[in-house]
Every structure is written in C-alpha cells, then in structure tokens.
From TrEMBL:
<keyword id="KW-0732">Signal</keyword>
<dbReference type="InterPro" id="IPR007742">
    <property type="entry name" value="NosD_dom"/>
</dbReference>
<dbReference type="InterPro" id="IPR006626">
    <property type="entry name" value="PbH1"/>
</dbReference>
<keyword id="KW-0812">Transmembrane</keyword>
<feature type="signal peptide">
    <location>
        <begin position="1"/>
        <end position="23"/>
    </location>
</feature>
<dbReference type="InterPro" id="IPR012334">
    <property type="entry name" value="Pectin_lyas_fold"/>
</dbReference>
<keyword id="KW-1133">Transmembrane helix</keyword>
<dbReference type="Pfam" id="PF05048">
    <property type="entry name" value="NosD"/>
</dbReference>
<keyword id="KW-0472">Membrane</keyword>
<feature type="domain" description="Periplasmic copper-binding protein NosD beta helix">
    <location>
        <begin position="134"/>
        <end position="326"/>
    </location>
</feature>
<feature type="transmembrane region" description="Helical">
    <location>
        <begin position="401"/>
        <end position="420"/>
    </location>
</feature>
<dbReference type="InterPro" id="IPR011050">
    <property type="entry name" value="Pectin_lyase_fold/virulence"/>
</dbReference>
<dbReference type="InterPro" id="IPR022441">
    <property type="entry name" value="Para_beta_helix_rpt-2"/>
</dbReference>
<protein>
    <submittedName>
        <fullName>Nitrous oxidase accessory protein</fullName>
    </submittedName>
</protein>
Length: 425
C-alpha cells in the first residue's frame, strides 16, 4: 500500500508541476490579467476551451487559426470598460440555455474585426454599450437567438458582416444613432429588426431569404438608403420592409425584388418612399391604416399587384412609374395624362375569404371589380404617373418565372384550403 501511495503522489506531482498543466488551466485569462494597459496580446493557433473576461484597454489578436470555445452558461468572452479590441478569432458557444451568448459587451469604444462567431443562441449582445464597432466578421447561428442584439446601446457601427441562420440578424431595442452598413443578412426571421429606436441608419445592406427583410416598429427618423431586399417570401407573413407605427422614415434608392410584399406600411405616417426599384413582388406596396405618407418617383415593374391600400387616406402618391398604367403624354412633360389607380377590391376580398385567390385575374373577378368599385377613400391614385422608369430595370426572364412560381404556390395553398373547407362541411 505504501508503494502504491508513493506512485500516486509522484504522478500527481508531475501533473501539477508540469508546464502543460498550467497551460490547460486558463492560459489566455492569465495572459490577459498580466498584460499592461494598451498591450497587444497574441494568441497562438489552437483551440482553447475556456471563458474570458476583459475589462481593460488591450488588444487580443489571433496568430493563425484560433478558436475559443465554451458550452458554459456565461459568455465565451465578456468585455467591459473601454477600448478593448478583438481581431482574427473564432468564438464558439455550444450551450443550449436561452440566454447563452458568445460575446457580451458593455462599456464603450470597443472594436471587433475579422471574427467568426458560431452560436446555438446569441452571437453578440451589447448591453448599454456605446461607440462599439463590429466589422468584417461572420455570425452563424441555429435560429434560436439574435446575431447581434442591442439594448440601450447608441452610436455603434456594424459594417461588412455576414449574419445567417439566426432569429434576428441585427436587433435594436431602445438604441439610437446606430449605423448598419454593407451587411449581408440571410436565412433568418428578420434581417434587421428595430424597436423603440430612433435616428438609426440602414445603408447598402443585403437582406435576403428571410421571413421579413427589415422591420421598423415604433421608430422615428430611420434612414433606409441603398439596401436590397430580395426573396423574402418564405411565409404568408413575409415582406421586404415592414413599417409598423414607424414615423419620419426615409426609404430612398432601395431595391425590393421577388418578395411576397415589397413594402408593407401599417399604422404608420409621415414616411417618405422615393426612387426605389419595386420589382417582381406579389404586392409591390401595401398600406393599412396608414396616412400622410409620400410615395414618389419609384419604379414598379412586374409585380402581380402594384399597390394596395386599405383604410388608408391622405397619402401622397405621384410621379411613380407603373408598368401596368396606361400612358399618354400629350404635353411632353414626361408624365401621363391618365392617372393610375390601384383598387384594393381583390385584396379585401381575399382577406375575408383566402380561397378566392383561386380566381386571381379571372375575367369574372375583373368584371366584378369594375362593377363594384371600392370607395374613393380606399383607392390609391397616382395622378401623374411617369412615362419612363426612374431606375434602370433589367429584363430578366428568370424573375418573371419566379413570379409565376410564387403565384402558383399561393393558388395551390388556396386550393388546399378550399378542399379542406369542403371536407369539414
């Protein structure tokens, strides 16, 4: 027995006092704790299973392929204070708890560059964090948490990010004056989702194959400029851009292509849509309980329904190009003498009875629409439609094919509802 005890003690001592033991305990946190303010801490290539806390101004940079991983409840990397920089690191959080987060940030003026973040829940959380920049990085999730989540965080910049397969790509709540620029947001619920947040700028982003490209809810003075909202149609509630109780929004020079609804405006007012390309959507623009909005100099091409308005009034709609409009320019001013009117009759009818979508563009339904016109206050009328497009539109047969496929799918769904309804009777 004494010999066995000696052997065990010798093995334990060799493990404890070997360099590899210390390296395995928490090598990165030790480096961080020992680094002076302003230091650059390089991490050697390899995989590190630990969590880190950084609360002083230092730069943590990967030298080669560096992966920091944890499945614990706390964040893989928690950042506070000021002026912390992370560069060239892969961060993986493999936990399943609802609030699990790969990177948690509070404080100010932090910078994240060239990161890869893999998470089963949240990617990056900003909690009362200001002046933070995250750029040239990638966030991949499992649709169970947001890619970037802001709470009371202002004047931050998110640039050149790819965010995919999350709940919301970039989510803002009570967060103001943030810049969301040149990001690619795809295959999620909302590409960008802003709630109770004001004076934010969304510029030159691509939001595609989401349920909703972007939602603005109870926001003011948002700028939406130069973005592309593509193929957001994989749900009966899908749309490119949703303005819900949003006010003073500037929607300028964007592309809304192959969405179920290009722009949906509900209970919103004093918004301005100008010089947008709205093409190959099932509905180009739809308004409900919306007033005092301005829609001008947009190009509507190839949409199944160009525009619809229900219980909406006092909206200014003029000088748009509608490919479905009759065009006669007598005085050569570039505007048609024949006004263009979008009647919501079909939309109102199918809202009450979805099975009527089977009869879309049927001669009988068109006749009924002409005979039973909607009240004048429900009509969306452009009194001076343009003769020429305000934006160049490519002639793509594939887009037309996609539009027909979308229509056939919707008709098929309506037919299924019709059959199910008959069986229940």
């Amino acid at each position: 027995m004494n010999v066995l005890k000696v052997i065990l003690a010798t093995l334990l001592a060799s493990m404890v006092f070997s360099p590899s033991f210390f390296e395995a305990s928490s090598p990165l946190q030790m480096k961080i704790d020992e680094a002076p303010v302003g230091a650059i801490v390089e991490i050697d290539a390899g995989e590190y299973e630990e969590t880190l806390v950084i609360s002083k101004p230092i730069t943590l940079v990967g030298n080669g392929e560096v992966r920091i991983k944890s499945c614990e409840a706390e964040p893989v990397i928690a950042i506070s204070g000021e002026d912390v920089t992370l560069k060239k690191i892969t961060v993986e959080h493999c936990g399943y708890e609802e609030e699990d987060t790969a990177i948690y940030i509070t404080g100010s003026n932090h910078r994240m560059e060239e990161l890869i973040i893999e998470t089963r829940r949240y990617g990056v959380k900003l909690d009362q964090a200001n002046g933070v920049t995250i750029k040239d990085s990638e966030i991949i999730g499992m649709k169970r948490g947001n890619g970037i989540d802001l709470w009371q965080s202002n004047q931050n910049t998110f640039e050149a990010l790819r965010i995919a397969s999350v709940s919301d790509g970039i989510y803002l709540e009570q967060s103001n004056e943030n810049l969301i620029y040149k990001n690619n947001l795809e295959n999620s619920r909302y590409g960008m989702h802003l709630m109770y947040s004001n004076d934010n700028v969304l510029r030159d982003n691509l939001s595609s194959s989401n349920i909703t490209g972007t939602m603005l809810m109870e926001t003011e003075r948002t700028t939406v400029h130069g973005n592309a909202f593509l193929a957001n149609k994989n749900s009966v509630n899908a749309q490119g851009l949703l303005l819900y109780e949003a006010y003073e929004t500037e929607v300028i020079e964007n592309e809304f292509i192959s969405n179920r609804i290009g722009v949906y405006i509900e209970k919103a007012g004093n918004n301005h849509l100008e010089s947008n390309k709205i093409r190959d959507n099932f509905i180009g623009v739809q308004m409900k309980n919306a007033s005092d909005n301005k829609i001008t100099r947009n190009t509507f091409v190839g949409n199944v329904n160009e525009a619809q308005a229900i219980e909406s009034s006092k909206n200014e709609v003029n000088q748009n190009y509608w490919d479905a409009a009759s065009k006669v320019d007598v005085d050569g001013n570039g505007e048609s003498e024949i006004s263009y009117t979008a009647d919501p009759y079909f939309l109102t009818l199918t809202t009450d009875v979805p099975e009527y979508q089977l009869f879309f563009q049927a001669p009988g339904l068109i006749l009924l629409q002409n005979l039973l016109k909607s009240p004048p206050e429900q009509l969306l009328t452009d009194s001076a439609p343009l003769m020429e497009m305000t934006m160049e539109v490519e002639k793509e047969t594939s887009s037309s094919l996609g539009l027909w496929v979308m229509s056939i799918v919707m008709i098929g769904a309506s037919f299924s509802l019709f059959i199910i309804g008959r069986k229940r009777r």
